[in-house]
Amino acid sequence: MQFKTFGLSNTENMFNGAMRRHFAIPAFNAYNMETVQSIVSAARLSKSPVIIAISESALKYMGDDMLMGIIGGLKITPNEQIALHLDHGSSIESCMHAINIGFSSVMLDFSKRDIDENITATANIVRYAHARDVSVESELGILSGIEDETTYSTESAYTDPDMAKQFVDETGTDSLAVAIGTSHGAYKRKSADEKLRFDILDNIQNKIPTTPLVLHGASSIPTDLINNINKFGGKLHNAMGIDVAQLEFAATKTNICKINIDSDLRLCFTSAVRETLATHPEIFNPREYLSPARDCIRDMCIFQIRTIFHSNDKI
Predict the structure, then answer these.
(1) N or C: less crowded end of the chain, CB within 10 Å?
(2) What is the mean pLDDT of residues 212-238?
């Protein structure tokens, strides 16, 4: 089914607007009805374009029909500029499947493969996607950390600027995720001294100045959420994210047009559920602890839209 049936948008106009007006599009990961509702509610309240990112494992968890039923039930319209994006597609087949059920954007992540294999596979999915007006994201460089079954690595490698130009020229990818020091999961830095490599980013965007760039693994891991989770029985010690000031700089002063946020939303959801159940032990109705979690994610998204992405009122 074509994505326009659901009122969704691809990312072409989103990224063009972001580059021209110096902001970034938030890509918030979702994994159930509540998280999808929160993201769309935040976008509508802040008048921000937004990308709903769905990993392969999240799609498997929800199921094709359930996810697209939720999307259909939200009554999205094209003027809201909401994209549905496959995050870290591990194969050409998984990207094709997402396109065929109604996704408006896909990422083929062959970043851990040989460069020639990455180029060939990406070029193939670009041809398939563009014939259906769907956007394609790809990745060069390797991010360390673990987020789910298909997003993990014990190694990291910065993106090579010269290789980035070759890759974009030969594949026709619509956007490129780059590795400049972010990582997946809740343990992104070992110390506050670790900084993003904006020197590498500068070299990349000088080589491919018109290509929208993407940051993965860029959650800030708010201390208050970590402390609240641990207060109510969690064990997330020494978790540390990316400095908010660096993310804001990337969103407003560089060619980064899309920043992925996943762990922050997981922490928000978990913090709200833990606190609600701990402070109200009489509760057993799931709606009574899922509602605060949904509200927490909505408020977190709105806060980040305004303070990091500066995408509010940009529709």
Answers:
(1) N
(2) 94
Up-side HSE of residue 299: CA atoms within 13 Å toward CB?
10
pLDDT in tens, 75-117: 999 999 999 999 999 999 999 999 999 999 999 999 889 999 9
Q: Which of 64, 87, 114, 199 is catalytic?
A: 87
**In angstroms, what CA-CA distances link 110 with 139, 169, 185?**
7, 17, 19
> pLDDT digit string (tens) for 42-86?
999 999 999 999 999 999 999 999 999 999 999 999 999 999 999
DSSP strand pairing (145-148 vs 151-153):
antiparallel
In the chain, the largest separation of any two C-alpha atoms, in whole Å, equals 60
Rounded-to-integer distance, Cα 247 and Cα 73, Å: 33
- DSSP string of 129-149? HHTTT-EEEEEESB--EEEET
d(CA 138, CA 141): 10
List Cβ neighbours of 120 (8 Å cut-off, separation of 6 or more): none
Domain 3-309 class?
Answer: alpha beta
C-alpha span between 237 and 78 (Å, rounded) = 42
Residue 38 φ then ψ, to 5°: -60, -45
> Would residue 87 show up in a list of annotated catalytic residues for this protein?
yes
What burial class does residue 236 get, using C-beta atoms within 10 Å of its C-beta: 0-12 exposed, 13-18 middle, 19+ buried?
middle
* Residue (of 33, 138, 133) closest to 87 by Cα position: 138
